[in-house]
UniProtKB/TrEMBL annotation:
The keyword Membrane is annotated on this UniProt entry: yes
InterPro entries documented for this protein: CmpB_TMEM229
Transmembrane segments: 136-160, 180-202, 214-234, 240-262, 295-316, 336-357, 364-391, 411-433, 445-466
Keywords: Coiled coil, Membrane, Transmembrane, Transmembrane helix
Source organism per UniProt: Adlercreutzia wanghongyangiae
Protein name per the record: ABC transporter permease
Coiled-coil spans in chain: 37-64
Length: 513
């Protein structure tokens, strides 16, 4: 009985294996059949293409047989071309002077084109003022610049070498990395400034007024950079007198060296005043006349953007602090000594306007990303300068998610800058333009000049008061008349109440370490 059951099981297993083998064979046959079918299909297409190509060739041959004159014409053309080339070769061998003349003519044409380009470029850097001889005093001044700047270079190089030795030996280990970095940056700026002054002096001696006037723009950048480094290293000190005097002299020399620059600015200003009058009557005042951007990027528009954005940004930040950061607590978060201004928002709005003006019709995502990078970068640089110069900390995002650059900015607040950029470019910029245009066109320059002078004085006094606050907290003597004035009028209590979001930590500054 058991044997019979076992035999049945074996039969079923054999039947199952046979079934599997049959399925495998059928699948293999089906696959092989599909491969043959595909191969035959491809062969058919290839054969069809070959037949079509052969038919086309056969058609061409038949046409040539039917029209033998075409073959003859083609052959004659080839022979004529070959004959022309042969005659040209023979002529060149017999008359080599013509080849030389053609080559000279080609070289002369290229030289004329090069001279024209050179003259065009030179015209941009020359003016009628170059024909007037500079006074002897300015030529002597140029010599003094070369001598003085040249003599300072070895001294600066010596300071750089000694500083590098001190850093390498570890003697400046107590100064802090930030102090060392700012020191070397300052020395590099001084080297660049000395070289620029030497070149400037050479231009004066050679009477190249236009070149010297244009070079003054480079001097502006270097003088301002040197002044900022000096503030970070020494505060508001006597060292700044050098940079202030250099800036004033450079401005005066630029206008004198090439009066055409001043004349061009005056002509453009008069033309612009006439255009503004027409645009004011037409209702298009302040718009970009080229159509590439939304707003015209002139000093008037950018200055009032700075002022209005500084005010709006301050109120926005105070409301956010009152509602969300510390609910129910109102905090004065002003950034200047006088007035309801937060300059970081004003500068941020100006930067966004400069970089995003042409993107006012672009996708909001592009505006968001660019504004986030601009806002976050500017916030980080401002924090770095304030901390290095005065030990001042007005914000710290170290505990925020996505903190960057030691808490100077963070991803959430960069996203806020991006959102502000979208709102500013898409919504507020048109409102801003309408608001500014309430100023009568004939009052625009006078009112802007007065307001700009006030903002400049406010900014300078803010820096000086912060410097005096730092000196008091660090234990430095407050002995100069200016320092005593700020010490008396803007003491610690006043400064702490005015800048409620700011704290001074002298140990964080790069000076005095």
């Amino acid at each position: 009985m058991g044997d019979g059951k076992r035999a049945q099981d074996i039969e079923r297993e054999v039947a199952s294996e046979l079934e599997k083998a049959g399925e495998y064979v059928r699948a293999d046959v089906a696959e092989t059949r599909q491969e043959w079918h595909d191969q035959l299909h491809n062969d058919k297409e290839q054969l069809t293409a070959d037949v079509a190509r052969d038919k086309e060739k056969l058609h061409e041959v038949i046409e040539e047989v039917r029209h033998p004159e075409q073959l003859a014409a083609a052959a004659e053309a080839k022979l004529a071309h070959a004959a022309d080339e042969a005659r040209e070769a023979v002529h060149a061998v017999e008359h080599p002077s013509e080849i030389v003349a053609d080559a000279k003519q080609a070289v002369a044409e290229k030289k004329a084109a090069f001279d024209e380009t050179t003259a065009t470029i030179a015209a941009e850097f020359t003016s009628s003022a170059d024909k007037k001889r500079l006074p002897v005093v300015l030529r002597v001044f140029g010599v003094l610049l070369i001598v003085g700047a040249g003599a300072s270079l070895p001294g600066i190089a010596k300071v750089i070498y000694r500083t590098a030795q001190l850093v390498g030996s570890g003697a400046m280990g107590g100064e802090g990395t930030s102090t060392i970095v700012v020191t070397f940056v300052h020395l590099a700026v001084l080297v660049a400034l000395a070289v620029a002054l030497i070149v400037f002096g050479v231009r004066l001696i050679r009477n190249q007024r236009r070149w010297a006037a244009l070079l003054s723009y480079v001097l502006y950048v270097l003088i301002i950079a040197g002044g900022l480094c000096s503030i970070m290293l020494s505060g508001i000190s006597i060292d700044l007198v050098f940079y202030l005097v250099a800036l004033v002299v450079t401005i005066a020399l630029q206008s004198y060296l090439d009066p055409t620059l001043l004349e061009e600015r005056r002509a453009r200003r008069k033309a612009r005043e006439a255009e503004e009058h027409q645009e004011g009557e037409a209702g298009t005042l302040g718009r970009d006349p080229s159509g590439k951007g939304y707003i015209a990027l002139n000093f008037f528009n950018l200055f009032w953007i700075f002022v209005v954005a500084s005010i709006l940004g301050l109120f926005m930040e105070e409301i956010v602090h009152f509602l969300f950061v510390v609910p129910g607590q109102w905090q004065d978060r002003a950034g200047l000594l006088f007035g309801p201004f937060s300059p970081i928002y004003g500068c941020g709005a100006v930067l966004m306007t400069l970089f995003l003006n042409r993107f006012h019709k672009s996708n909001w995502l592009i505006i968001f990303l660019v504004a986030a990078v601009i806002g976050g970068g500017f916030e980080a640089l401002t924090s770095l300068f304030m901390q290095y110069a005065f030990g001042a900390v007005a914000w710290d995002y170290s505990n925020m998610p996505g903190s960057l650059f030691g808490g100077r900015t963070c991803l959430p607040f960069m996203a806020c800058w991006g959102l502000l950029g979208v709102v500013w470019i898409k919504l507020l910029l048109p409102f801003m333009l309408r608001l500014v245009n309430f100023i009568p066109w004939n009052w625009r320059y006078v009112l802007t000049t007065v307001a700009a002078c006030f903002m400049l004085v406010d900014a300078v006094m803010t820096l000086q008061s912060l410097d005096c606050w730092y000196m008091r907290l660090s234990g430095d003597k407050v002995d100069t008349p200016i320092q005593q004035f700020y010490d008396h009028e803007f003491g610690d209590t006043y400064m702490a109440d005015r800048f409620q979001s700011m704290t001074i930590h002298p140990a964080d500054a790069v000076r005095g370490k």
